[in-house]
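=== RUN LOG ===
request id: a7f3
mode: sequence -> structure
chains: 1
length: 136
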Amino acid sequence: MSRSGYSDDCDDWALIRWRGAVASAIRGERGQAFLRELLAALDAMPERCLIANDLRDADGDFCTLGVIGNARGVDIASIDPEDRDSVAAAFRISPALAAEIMFENDEGYYHNERPEHRWQRMRQWVASQIRGSGQS
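=== RESULT ===
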């Protein structure tokens, strides 16, 4: 199972309900505010590269959620990156939105993605989720 908690082992109705929760989290006021803040944090990065499978690595590089945690001054070391509920609570977002961002960051492309490409892809994904961004 992935860090997002997504798996291929679910029934159709559970998947439909989950995708509805993700869509609602992205569409909602709190989700939209978070995505706008996340986009600004990504754009403010001096080195535009993202890691996968953790919030921050030993070199001080971040995943997409780690970027906003760093910008907010969140103690990232205290968050279990494998627990989407604790990640969601730390960033004050729904577990559905946290899981979706983790999935897109870690598994949204292919296994050997370069960190610079992951940054470009995730920035584009975040921008495309913001209402009125013209990038949907």
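=== NOTES ===
The chain has a mean pLDDT of 90.
Residues 12-129 form one domain.
=== END ===
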